[in-house]
């Protein structure tokens, strides 16, 4: 069985109609959407409208996943197939011509095998008080 190369989560989109259209386009292009408010390791891409301080964003960055804008899906749909992610990758820099792209640099290091992803000794995404309160933290025996 072939694994899906485009498995998406979405964060920071508050307008339901925009999110619904994105999910439709993802599925029409043969991708998969994973809902929920907690980061899922099975995802390959996180869609965000701008840089966020959410747990999903931080975990996706730490895991070396693609973090792209909604335009990636919309433009891919117009194209009829998935486009290259690079031009749609979120940048923390406010200077569009800057070569300072920590999200991209981290993802490339994880993808090349120079880093294992995540943080040393961390199993799963970063977790804080909110995750503990929601029962998402796994404790060691």
Automatic annotation (TrEMBL):
Instruction: Give the matching Gene3D superfamilies.
Output: BRCT domain
Classification via InterPro entries: BRCT_dom, BRCT_dom_sf, Slf1
Q: Where is the signal peptide?
A: none
Record-level GO cellular component terms: nucleus; site of double-strand break
Among the Pfam families in the record, one is: RTT107_BRCT_5
**The BRCT domain covers which part of the protein?**
7-90
PROSITE patterns of this UniProt entry?
Answer: BRCT
Biological processes, Gene Ontology terms: DNA damage response; positive regulation of double-strand break repair; protein localization to site of double-strand break
* SMART domains for this protein: BRCT (SM00292)
Q: Please give the residue ranges the record annotates as the region Disordered.
A: 114-141
PANTHER family under this entry? SMC5-SMC6 COMPLEX LOCALIZATION FACTOR PROTEIN 1
Q: What is this protein called?
A: BRCT domain-containing protein
Taxonomic source organism: Champsocephalus esox
Give the organism's phylogenetic lineage. Eukaryota, Metazoa, Chordata, Craniata, Vertebrata
